[in-house]
Amino acid sequence: MKYEVLLKQVIMEAALSVGVLMLMGGGVYYLGILADDYDTQTNVLRREASQLQQQTSELQTKFSKVRANADVYQEVLEKQGKGTLSISRQVARDKFNQYNDQYYLGNLRLTMSGIEELSGSQYKRPSGTIQASEVSVNFEAVSDEYVYDMINAMQQQLSGSVKLTRLSLQRQRTLSDDILRLISQKGAFPLVVGEVRFKWFGMKPLDAEENNAIELLK
Amino acid sequence: MALKDKAHSVRSGFGEVVANKKASLLKSSTRYVLFIGDEGAILVYLSDNVVKSRQYIPDTSTLNLENLRETIIKDTKAALLVVVDTIDQSYIQQTLPPVSSMSIKKLIRRRLERDFAANDIKGAVILGREAAGRKDWNFMMISLERTPLLNTWIEFIESLPNRLQGFYLVAAEAEILLRQLEKQVGKSSNAEWKFFVSHNKVSGFRQVILHKGRVVFTRMSQPLGESTPEVMAGNIEQEMLSTIEYMRRLSFDPQQGLDVYIVASGAIRSAIDNSKFSASVKQMHVLTPYEVAEHLDIEGATQPADQFGDVVLAANIGRSLRHVLTLHTPQSQKFSQLYQAMLGQRLAAGVLIGMVVLYALSIFVSMYGTFLDAGRQETMKIEQQKKLDLIRLAIRQSALDVEKTNDLIDLYSQLEKERFSPLLLLSKIQGVLKPNTVTVKGIELSYDEPKSNSQAAAQLGALAGQNLVVSGGDVPANIVASLTLEFPAINTLEAFKPVSTQMLADLRQALPGFDIAFTRLPNIFSEDEKLDMTFGGAKGAAQSGNVNQSLDVVISISGNAGLYKALADSPAPVMQPSAGEQTP
Fold first, then answer.
1. Is 0.90 surpassed by the pTM of this model?
2. Which SS3 state, helix, strand or coil, does residue B502 take?
3. Record: contact A162-B419, CB cut-off 8 A
4. How far apart are CA B556 and CA B518, in angstroms?
5. Cβ pair B400:A212 closer than 8 A
6. Which of B20, B302, B35 shows the shortest CA–CA distance to B177?
7. Would you tell me how many other CB atoms lie within 10 Å of the CB of residue A161?
8. What does the radius of gyration of chain B's CA atoms come to, in whole angstroms?
9. Which of B36, B311, B399, B427 lies in the 20 to 30 Å Cα band around B111?
10. Chain B residue numbers touching A192 (CB-CB < 8 A)
11. Which of B341, B363, B578 sits opposite A31 (nearest CB)?
12. Rounded CA separation B568/B573 (Å)
């Protein structure tokens, strides 16, 4: 076989190989692009399906919760209607004036900070917000028993909810016959000096969803 | 060959036979082997390792060469192997200093250039290194003199359109042939020396001596006298005895063992007198060409009556994948390099194409997986959409604003969670304090909000004046009560101790888990006694005597919100009038 013939064959084969490889490479590159596109589309589909699943699950949970807590919702609506979920300076003033007489308090001094909306997802929702105020009450009392009764009444009667953060009671004098007599005459005597501090929570007024409540109660 | 025989040969053929079968898959399926001797040449045509035809060419006359050309050009795709077995061959064993294996070839090439004529066809076989001493390299330099006869053949071969694979020598390739024969013929005697003799038509008697499997010496002789089997056998015997005698000068020791393989006609075999070699030879095998072909499983190479070994030797070299030495003329060397480059190019292209195909396949598989996944996702999406629609329908039917209602419920629950009253704790404490023994002089109670780790660390850091890292969970809400107590009915320390100890025990029982301790005791107590009262140890002795002042004791009670919650299991707090206070 002639060397030139073989050389020609080698060159032709090389050219053919390069051509075939280029064609195949191009095909594979195009295939890769197609596969990437397909992958992207599938990922979008996966994300959509996942979002839909999450949305369904969340809605289902909320709906179940609403149905399971119909009585709570009714209670909320009732309290909203009566205004016993919201807090205000006027309510505090009125209530402690009432307690002053009811529990034989003296020298009552009420301090209340501004009512602020609380931050945090547990306090802030699209349909409502929890507010709070720091309240401090200084007083004189005839007995610690009345103070306990007042705290009990605060928990029961004050709108919203009360988180008592400090209680300080100090007996000022030892009980004697003279003091007993004075108490009988005046009805009040600074036998005990105390301070109650509490954080007062309430809900910012919302539109009552009475229709919802009616449907739930059905 | 009968089926039974074929099966036997596959089983007993071991490496070489099996390798030759595999070889047919890798090499061109057809090739020519031109066996050139001083007395003519024989052309063997192999197809799939089967000898299809053979042609004897008595000389290099124009007519004969034209006839040969006509035969060869019938298959121009077949490669041509030239086996040269002429008398003008030189075999020189040499040693070289123990240079590295990388540079030994270069040294050998230099030595070949020096020792042989530039025109000679030459090469070398590396025989290995000395086992002891300096470990010099041993190698065999081989050259083919370009005699006019050989030049005629080479010119003829180079004019053919077929690819010339190379020039091969019977003496060198005998290494492979003997290894194959040894496996096929019978038990090896473990002899270090082997003696191979072949009676060839075109070259006469070729004798090859191998030591430890490598060729060390070869001789060629022409038959003398009449061509009767007896004369031929006598020639072989005489030549062999001469060779053995010469071998003794090459350090041959009969104790090391010598096996002899003779390829000759059946008539010559009958005439050979084995007893002449009994002193030196361990095993002697005299095989006819037909038997050799049978042993080596070369189909079609010989007939039972064949007398010469040329065809079987040519066929075995032609079908072998490996060769001991391939020689080239400058032209064939250049051609061979280009051919090897072409093979390399084909291999590279094949590998690359294979890789591309595999990559394409992997993409297809991946796409198929994605296709299946997309189907699943689509189905899931439809199912979820249906579920969502059903829930939305149910919500619409219930005329509820779920989002708003849910928010309200959550906020209300949170509002209730924030509620805290210490009355339960105070009630529990009051239940423990005995009205006749102790009165409450003062209460300080605080509720510390729960803190996240970072808040707690910041607070502690601020106290310690450095940055602190607190591990573990968040710090829960903590309730701390500090009660100042009086013991009006107790006048002596002896009386105080059991009462206070009992009170402490009662409080701990009533408020399980809470930390309860005296934080302030009257100064009338020694430090040991204070420690004793505070930590419940047993130190020191109580100071005796009357107490002329009231005993003001501060007791601290603290616990977290979890403990406080557990108290809810106890009866609901019912506030009783305080022991120390009297109602008006």
1. no
2. helix
3. yes
4. 6
5. yes
6. B20
7. 25
8. 55
9. B36
10. 581
11. B363
12. 9
In this structure, what DSSP letter does residue B279 have?
A: T
pLDDT digits (tens, 9 = 90+) for B137-188: 989 999 999 999 999 999 999 999 999 999 999 999 999 999 999 888 876 6
Distances (CA, A) of B427 to B230, B499, B568, B575: 136, 20, 11, 6
pLDDT band at A157 (very low <50, low <70, confident <90, very high): very high
Is B447 touching A (CB cutoff 8 A)? yes
Instruction: Retrieve residue A162's tokens.
Output: 């009360």
* Distance from the A97 Cα atom to the nearest Cα atom in chain B, whole angstroms: 21
Q: Using the beta-carbon criterion (under 8 Å), do A175 and B394 form an inter-chain contact? A: no
SS3 assignment for B447-468: EECCECHHHHHHHHHHHHCCCC
User: Can you tell me the ipTM of this complex?
Assistant: 0.76
Do residue A151 and residue B423 have CB atoms under 8 angstroms apart?
yes
Which residue's structure tokens are 């009262």?
A: B533
The one-letter code for the residue type at A128 is G
Mapped onto helix, strand or coil, the DSSP state of residue B78 is coil
The pLDDT tens digits of the residues spanning B97-142 come to 888 878 888 899 999 999 998 889 999 998 888 888 888 898 999 9
End-to-end CA distance of chain A: 102
Flag if B370 and A42 touch (Cβ within 8 Å).
yes
CA distances from B264 to B234, B307, B485 (A): 12, 6, 131
Residue B553 and residue B497: Cα distance in Å, rounded?
A: 12
B339·A6 Cβ contact <8 A: yes
Chain A contact present for B360, CB below 8 A: yes
Which of A17, A73, A142 is facing B409, going by the closest CB pair? A73
Residue B422 contacts A, CB cutoff 8 Å: yes
Distance from CA of B574 to the nearest CA of A (A): 10
DSSP classification of residue A159: S
Model pLDDT for residues A167-188, shown as the tens digit of each residue? 999 988 877 788 888 777 777 7
- At residue B407, the 3 state secondary structure works out as helix
Say yes or no for a CB contact (<8 Å) between B406 and A164. no
Question: Residue B342 and residue B28: Cα distance in Å, rounded?
Answer: 14
Phi/psi for B555 (5° steps) reads -120, 135
Q: B526-533 — which CB contacts under 8 Å span 24+ positions?
A: B533/B497, B533/B500, B533/B501
Nearest CA in chain B to A30: B360
* CB < 8 Å & 24+ apart, contacts of B504-513: B504/B536, B504/B555, B506/B432, B507/B429, B507/B432, B507/B555, B507/B557, B510/B428, B510/B429, B510/B431, B510/B432, B511/B425, B511/B428, B511/B429, B511/B557, B511/B559, B511/B563, B511/B567, B512/B563, B512/B566, B513/B559, B513/B563, B513/B566
**Does the beta-carbon distance from B353 to A148 stay under 8 Å?**
no
Q: Tokens 């006298």 map to which residue?
A: B225
- Which is it for the CA torsion B372, B378, B381, B386, positive or negative? negative
Beta-strand pair A105-112/B79-85: unpaired
Q: Is B584 within 8 Å of A10 when comparing Cβ atoms?
A: no
Among chain B residues, the shortest Cα distance to A172 is held by B441
Query: What does the alpha-carbon distance between residue B348 and residue B338 come to, in Å, rounded to a whole number?
Result: 15
